[in-house]
């Protein structure tokens, strides 16, 4: 079982949090902070596993994480999950994001956290892995986005126009703060089919 | 400008959307909280609008704020509104918000039931998908109950996308609503073979998750998973399955043997590291489970270790980490194979990655030996010095102590070295583990008598330098060691060189800054030292000055402690102060007081096992909850105030017996009580008796004087604890060993010369045994009460939600279970109930049984269908396994025939179980009969347990085999007609399997060498030239007043037998149950005809009132024998013998419940002796189990306790002992009449064989 999936940046700002067990908001924030604290002090080139923080079940759970440019992707899992399998899953997740957002960067996650949730929902459901095949995930996500678009139809057009105008006014939306090199070298683990 | 115009017309487009909110927050870095609160106000406004688009937008923003830590539960209702939008866009937003912030106590969840149901059945697959995803996050018991059926239907949806989600969410449903597991399981199992790999993977996922918690219920799926494992190419699925097998193998060693080969192949073939690693892990699990049974697995171990070494040597830190992790699993059972990689592991200790160092530390635990302990610890001490983070340093510290103290200090050859290490560790600043070091110091000083002098010297030095430790006292955990130091110096003060100096050190004013509990120990031990000083001085004549000075010192210094805020310190200090003052007075009068003062602290302490107190059995007849004296009302508060908080060591010195005060007791009564008390004290391990057993222990060992202490003490500076001196010990130790070696060499040479025969060259490495400890130490083991109960501590968390999922899945479903029952309340009461009658039945299976009773009438049809399906499946499976179907087909009926498993047509679970057996018995490794009998505790597997054991001896009984296969054929025909009987069979089977499913029964039969002889409960009823009747009588578990008589009719002649009618002359006590409307003397038609040579079975139900006495009923069977040309009417009389045994039902009982039952005192005893029984004990037990429906509770050597229960709930307990051909049975039962008769019947059984 996956207990929680957290994405935060190098400063510990949460970009996505998905808890598969209920905690209240304060505890969730503490868990994020604690996890960030544990993960961020680790060097690059050390192993990607560590024991969970006290709040999220201590040594019964493992934190399995990957660090991509400015973002940490952390999965908190129990003993029934294969460590290397989850590492691959994170890779699949990030690659999927990369495909869906066309060269994903932290800003995509900041502004479209709902979309990230939707993508994640096609991979992991209720703490269990639903799908590991990237093409299948993308197919389902695309189909749903298509539906959304068709529902918005003509009524959606002015709204889109407005949001385009809004974006125009804001210098702060440059796409070039790219975390770019998302396909960071992955240890020789074949990804799942 | 243009913007503003537009804004007026279409207002809502300019509501902030999520992106605007995020942007806004990023632009208000300084006053984020304020900005967000205005945003929340806006959101509240938006939520008030009717437009669903606006609401959805607001909810979307709330979801973001929730992630930032804002409580948005106030908008729960609005979320539900958005969820129920007809548009997918909004629905998705709603469900996402719900999945992020709804939980079990969100009250609006109950409003969602119908909406979710609607979405689940939506024609749009994504509506359904979104609903399932959302539900998986916030499913509650109520939702699970109400929607379970809908989700179950979705498991067979046409779209694989829905199927896989539905399958996956079932796990959550099971967790919240355990009753749904049984009805849903068959479908879930089907999904394991779904054509879509995603669905298949989901099903594997769910079953693995379920099986991880309650593995034994899923053992019967092993063949299916095995097939998947060998056929699947999806690594994700493979990993899950292999992990599952890792959980199953400990339950079924045969499974492990079967697994080794394919796993080894996978290890060799796969390129995926993740898969390789899991394979290695499972192979390890298999080897652990086999470690006792299979000698030829060294190749596999070697393969694992070798692969792990490759992982550890890999540059990828992840692989390194996992390699070490797996290595530590091997370490537990095969330390030797890991030890050869010591170099690698020590190397990992230097890794820059802390996680890897920690894993390597775990491994060190098993690497140490007498030889290398010092060296390894030295290395660790270096790491301690280097370590930066306190966490890692603390970890190192605990590991050092763990390693050294493991298995009762097994590897320590020099305790002086160890004490020095401990003292060195006290230099660690800011460690949390001061108490750990302290307890080690105490433990070593108490247990290793020879080290006391050295320890005391070291501790005195520590006390003297206390200021070094207590830099910033209070919060400094390390000052805990002073607690130990003070106590050791006080308790063993006779070893002190200069007690006066130590006393002075202990009474320094700085001590008052130490934590209270430590001060208390200081004060108390100052008094002990005082006693020592007095005694020391009084030997030396007339130097009363020193003693007077000492007294004065105490009188001067103690007042500081008397003023302490800590009660404990205050109390002790004032007591001792007054005592010293009094002594001073006496001293001034030149009275010799040393003797009396020393007597205050006389006596020696023994280490007591931490659990000792818990283990003292409660004496018979003592009710701990009963009042000794009824308390006068209102005095309770006073009692509470009196509770002492003595946490200190001294509590051990006090007798634990506080005797209640009696008000008026006459002389006689007093004397009697004294007697009782003495007896009690004699038995009480905590009562310190006049002649202490511990002293004996010490005397038995070599006296301190005779211990060959190597003269090294002088070379070691004892003072300044700041200097590491353990190193010197290492050096000394080496020298010593060299010397020993040389000595040995000399001796060897001598011997060689003497014997003139070459011995093993000593140039090779020193073996473990060669290292003699520097001190002959007597390590006192912990004391335990003499009659301590074996611990059966249940470590399981009672609140574990998975406990409720411990449900037997192999039992056939009752018809009513096919549809989920819709209840109004959670069945908490039901779950609790089975405990009360002291039965160890599995909790969750109880409600099922109860319901089964009411629904039995519906059972038959469904079961029939299921059975046929099962049979088909079985056949299919066997073909795939490449087995000879014919052989398999004929073997099974043999089993049921020979053992006379009354449920001759075994209900669904039996083929399942024997399938497993069959599958397992085909393991490549040859498995012998007793292994076949060693079916693990999977309840369903146990019915054929005896059978399979028998089958191994029986196959040569050819005639029976053929007969029984015919017999089986007939049975299917019969089944259609014989519905009523069938249900009885079903029940019968149930209790049968329950009984023998008990783990203990197997315990009784597992390890035996000889196979059991075939046994049958079918007794000849009557026979003539046409027909033979054999019968078996069993109680009905579900109805206390019914017994079921199964009669097998066998046609012995060449003619056709038909129109069989059976009639029995009812007695007052027992009546044949006839169909409604039939008269009391009407006969019952036997529902089949018999062609020549064929046998078939029918069951008849009798109602019984009293079960205390055995009884006989007269009956007649009438039938028509039809030949080609004529037919004759024949009859056969019989006598049906209802033994008391037939009223007993095999019922499992756990040993604790059993003990409770015996203690209750409600049972009356009786006993029986059987002479000249010359059969093995396990045969004997098996016979009693089989013929008399008992189950083995516990078996120890040639003694076993057994249990059974009558249909009316009488408990029958047996204690069977055997010694050279004599078997004595002590029995207890709450119904003496029944017991007597049962014993008579047991006697009869053994007289016949």
Automatic annotation (TrEMBL), chain A:
Lineage: superkingdom: Eukaryota
InterPro entries registered for this protein in UniProt: AP_complex_ssu, AP_mu_sigma_su, APS3, Clathrin_sm-chain_CS, Longin-like_dom_sf
Keywords: Cytoplasmic vesicle, Golgi apparatus, Membrane, Protein transport, Transport
Similarity comment text for this entry: Belongs to the adaptor complexes small subunit family.
Record's GO cellular component terms: AP-3 adaptor complex; cytoplasmic vesicle membrane; Golgi apparatus
Signal peptide residues on this chain, from the entry's feature table: none
Name of the protein: AP complex mu/sigma subunit domain-containing protein
Membrane topology: Peripheral membrane protein
Cellular location(s): Cytoplasmic vesicle membrane; Golgi apparatus
Protein's job: Part of the AP-3 complex, an adaptor-related complex which is not clathrin-associated. The complex is associated with the Golgi region as well as more peripheral structures. It facilitates the budding of vesicles from the Golgi membrane and may be directly involved in trafficking to lysosomes. In concert with the BLOC-1 complex, AP-3 is required to target cargos into vesicles assembled at cell bodies for delivery into neurites and nerve terminals.
GO biological process, one term: Golgi to vacuole transport
Domain named AP complex mu/sigma subunit: residues: 1-147
Gene3D superfamilies: 3.30.450.60
UniProtKB/TrEMBL annotation, chain B:
Membrane topology listed for this record: Peripheral membrane protein
Domain annotation AP-3 complex subunit delta: ranges: 665-810
Comp. bias intervals (Basic and acidic residues): 650-667, 730-741, 798-835, 845-864
Chief subcellular location: cytoplasm
Subcellular location(s) of the protein: Cytoplasm; Golgi apparatus membrane
GO BP field: anterograde synaptic vesicle transport; Golgi to vacuole transport; neurotransmitter receptor transport, postsynaptic endosome to lysosome; protein targeting to vacuole; synaptic vesicle budding from endosome; synaptic vesicle membrane organization
Keyword Secreted: no
One GO CC term, this protein: AP-3 adaptor complex
Functional summary from the UniProt entry: Part of the AP-3 complex, an adaptor-related complex which is not clathrin-associated. The complex is associated with the Golgi region as well as more peripheral structures. It facilitates the budding of vesicles from the Golgi membrane and may be directly involved in trafficking to lysosomes. Involved in process of CD8+ T-cell and NK cell degranulation. In concert with the BLOC-1 complex, AP-3 is required to target cargos into vesicles assembled at cell bodies for delivery into neurites and nerve terminals.
Entry protein name: AP-3 complex subunit delta-1
């Amino acid at each position: 079982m996956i207990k929680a999936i957290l994405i935060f940046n190098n400063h510990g700002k949460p970009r996505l949090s998905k808890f598969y067990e209920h905690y209240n908001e304060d505890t969730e924030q503490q868990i994020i902070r604690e996890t960030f604290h544990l993960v961020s002090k680790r060097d690059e080139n050390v192993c990607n596993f560590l024991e969970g923080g006290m709040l999220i079940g201590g040594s019964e759970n493992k934190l399995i994480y990957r660090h991509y440019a400015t973002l940490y992707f952390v999965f908190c899992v129990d003993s029934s999950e294969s460590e290397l399998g989850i590492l691959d899953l994170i890779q699949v997740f990030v690659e999927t994001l990369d495909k869906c957002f066309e060269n994903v960067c932290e800003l995509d996650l900041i502004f479209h956290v709902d979309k990230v949730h939707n993508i994640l929902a096609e991979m992991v459901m209720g703490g269990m892995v639903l799908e590991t095949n990237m093409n299948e995930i993308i197919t389902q996500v695309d189909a749903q986005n298509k539906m959304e678009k068709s529902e918005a139809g003509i009524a959606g057009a002015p709204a889109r126009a407005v949001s385009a105008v809004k974006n125009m006014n804001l210098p702060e939306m440059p796409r070039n703060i790219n975390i770019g090199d998302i396909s960071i070298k992955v240890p020789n683990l074949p990804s799942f089919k | 400008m243009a913007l503003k115009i537009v804004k007026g017309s279409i207002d809502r487009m300019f509501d902030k959307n999520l992106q605007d909110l995020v942007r806004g927050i990023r632009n208000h870095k300084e006053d984020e909280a304020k900005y967000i609160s205005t945003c929340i106000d806006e959101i509240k406004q938006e939520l008030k609008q009717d437009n669903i688009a606006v609401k959805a937008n607001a909810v979307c923003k709330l979801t973001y704020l929730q992630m930032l830590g804002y409580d948005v539960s106030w908008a729960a209702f609005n979320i539900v509104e958005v969820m129920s939008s007809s548009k997918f866009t909004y629905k998705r937003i709603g469900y996402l918000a719900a999945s992020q912030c709804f939980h079990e106590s969100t009250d609006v969840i109950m409003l969602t039931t119908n909406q979710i149901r609607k979405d689940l059945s939506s024609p749009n697959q994504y509506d359904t998908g979104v609903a399932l995803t959302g539900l998986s996050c916030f499913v509650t018991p109520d939702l699970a109950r109400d929607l379970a059926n809908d989700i179950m239907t979705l498991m067979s949806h046409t779209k694989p996308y829905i199927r896989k989600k539905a399958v996956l969410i079932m796990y959550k449903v099971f967790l919240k609503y355990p009753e749904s597991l049984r009805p849903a399981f068959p479908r879930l199992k089907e999904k394991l073979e779904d054509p879509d790999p995603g669905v298949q993977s989901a099903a594997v996922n769910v079953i693995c998750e379920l099986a991880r918690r309650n593995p034994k219920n899923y053992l019967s799926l092993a063949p299916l998973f095995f097939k998947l494992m060998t056929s699947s190419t999806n690594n994700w699925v493979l990993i899950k399955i292999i992990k599952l097998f890792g959980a199953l193998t400990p339950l079924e060693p045969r499974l492990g043997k079967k697994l080794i080969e394919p796993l080894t192949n996978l290890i060799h073939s796969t390129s995926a590291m993740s898969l390789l690693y899991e394979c290695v892990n499972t192979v390890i699990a298999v080897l652990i489970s086999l470690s006792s049974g299979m000698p030829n697995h060294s190749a596999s171990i070697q393969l694992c270790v070798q692969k792990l070494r490759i992982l550890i040597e890999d540059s990828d830190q992840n692989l390194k980490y996992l390699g070490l992790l797996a290595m530590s699993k091997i370490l537990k059972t095969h330390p030797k194979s890991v030890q050869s990689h010591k170099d690698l592991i020590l190397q990992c200790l230097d890794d820059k990655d802390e996680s890897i160092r920690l894993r390597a530390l775990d491994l060190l635990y098993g690497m140490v030996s007498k030889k290398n302990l010092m060296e390894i610890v030295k290395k660790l001490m270096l790491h301690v010095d280097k370590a930066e983070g306190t966490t890692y340093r603390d970890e190192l510290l605990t590991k050092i102590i763990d390693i050294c103290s493991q298995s009762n200090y097994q590897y320590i050859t020099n305790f002086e070295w160890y004490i020095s290490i401990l003292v060195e560790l006290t230099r660690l600043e800011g460690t949390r583990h001061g108490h750990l070091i302290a307890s080690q110091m105490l433990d070593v000083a108490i247990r290793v008598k020879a080290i006391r002098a050295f320890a005391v010297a070291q501790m005195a030095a520590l006390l003297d330098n206390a200021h070094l430790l207590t830099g910033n006292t209070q919060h400094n955990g390390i000052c805990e060691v002073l607690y130990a130091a003070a106590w050791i110096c006080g308790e063993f003060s006779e070893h002190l060189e200069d007690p006066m100096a130590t006393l002075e050190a202990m009474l320094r004013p700085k001590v008052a800054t130490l934590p209270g509990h430590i001060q208390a120990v200081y004060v108390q031990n100052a008094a002990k030292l005082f006693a020592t000083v007095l005694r020391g001085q009084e030997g030396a004549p007339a130097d009363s000055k020193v003693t007077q000075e000492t007294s004065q010192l105490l009188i001067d210094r103690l007042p500081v402690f008397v003023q302490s805020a800590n009660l404990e310190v205050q109390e002790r200090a004032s007591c001792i102060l007054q005592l010293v003052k009094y002594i001073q007075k006496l001293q001034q009068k030149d009275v010799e007081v040393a003797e009396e003062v020393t007597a205050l602290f006389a006596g020696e302490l023994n280490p007591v096992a931490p659990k000792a107190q818990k283990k003292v059995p409660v004496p018979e007849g003592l009710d701990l909850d009963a009042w000794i004296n009824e308390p006068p009302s209102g005095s309770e508060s006073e009692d509470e105030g009196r509770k002492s908080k003595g946490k200190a060591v001294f509590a051990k010195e006090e007798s634990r017996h506080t005797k209640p005060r009696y008000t008026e007791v006459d002389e006689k009564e007093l004397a009697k009580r004294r007697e009782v008390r003495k007896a009690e004290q004699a038995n009480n391990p905590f009562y310190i008796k006049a002649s202490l057993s511990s002293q004996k222990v010490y005397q038995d060992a070599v006296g301190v004087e005779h211990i060959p202490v190597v003269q090294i003490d002088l070379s070691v500076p004892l003072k300044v604890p700041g200097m590491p001196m353990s190193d010197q010990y290492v050096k000394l130790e080496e020298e010593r060993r060299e010397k020993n070696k040389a000595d040995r060499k000399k001796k060897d040479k001598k011997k060689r010369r003497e014997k003139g025969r070459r011995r093993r060259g000593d140039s090779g490495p020193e073996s473990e045994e060669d290292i003699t400890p520097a001190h002959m130490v007597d390590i006192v083991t912990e004391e335990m009460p003499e009659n301590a109960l074996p611990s059966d501590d249940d470590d399981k968390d009672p609140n574990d939600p998975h406990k409720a999922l411990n449900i037997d899945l192999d039992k056939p479903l009752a018809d009513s279970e096919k549809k989920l029952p819709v209840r109004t309340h959670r069945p908490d009461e039901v779950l609790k109930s089975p405990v009360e009658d002291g039965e160890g039945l599995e909790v969750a299976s109880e409600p099922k049984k109860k319901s089964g009773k009411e629904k039995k009438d519906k059972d038959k049809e469904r079961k029939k269908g299921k059975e046929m399906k099962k049979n088909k499946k079985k056949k299919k499976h066997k073909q795939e396994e490449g087995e000879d179907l014919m052989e398999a087909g004929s073997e099974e009926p043999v089993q049921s025939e020979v053992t006379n498993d009354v449920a001759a047509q075994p209900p669904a679970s039996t083929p399942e179980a024997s399938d497993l057996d069959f599958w397992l018995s085909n393991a490549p490794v040859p498995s012998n009969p007793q292994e076949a009998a060693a079916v693990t505790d999977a309840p369903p597997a146990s019915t054929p347990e005896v059978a399979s054991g028998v089958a191994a001896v029986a196959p040569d009984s050819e005639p029976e085999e053929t007969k029984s296969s015919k017999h089986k054929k007939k049975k299917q025909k019969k089944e259609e007609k014989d519905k009523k009987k069938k249900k009885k069979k079903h029940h019968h089977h149930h209790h049968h399997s329950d009984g023998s499913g008990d783990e203990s029964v197997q315990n009784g039969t597992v390890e035996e060498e000889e196979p059991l002889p075939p046994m049958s409960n079918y007794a000849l009823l009557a026979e003539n030239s046409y027909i033979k009747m054999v019968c078996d009588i069993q109680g009905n578990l579900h109805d206390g007043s019914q017994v079921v008589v199964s009669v097998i009719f066998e046609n012995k002649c060449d003619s056709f037998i038909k129109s069989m009618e059976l009639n029995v002359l009812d007695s007052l006590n027992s009546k044949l149950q006839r169909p409604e409307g039939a008269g009391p003397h009407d006969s019952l038609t036997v529902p089949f005809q018999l062609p020549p040579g064929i046998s078939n079975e029918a069951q008849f139900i009798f109602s019984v009132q009293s079960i205390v006495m055995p009884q006989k009923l007269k009956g007649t069977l009438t039938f028509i024998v039809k030949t080609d040309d004529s037919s004759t009417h024949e009859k056969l009389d019989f006598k049906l013998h209802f033994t008391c045994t037939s009223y007993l039902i095999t019922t499992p009982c756990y040993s604790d419940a059993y003990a409770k039952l015996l203690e209750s005192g409600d049972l009356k005893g009786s006993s029986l002796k059987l002479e000249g029984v010359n059969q093995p004990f396990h045969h004997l037990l098996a016979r009693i189990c089989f013929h008399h429906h008992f189950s083995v509770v516990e078996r120890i050597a040639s003694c076993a306790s057994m249990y059974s229960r009558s249909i009316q709930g009488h408990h029958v307990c047996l204690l069977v002992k055997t010694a050279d051909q004599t078997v004595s049975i002590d029995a207890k039962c709450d119904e003496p009449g029944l017991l007597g008769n049962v014993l008579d019947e047991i006697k009869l059984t053994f007289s016949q064989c």
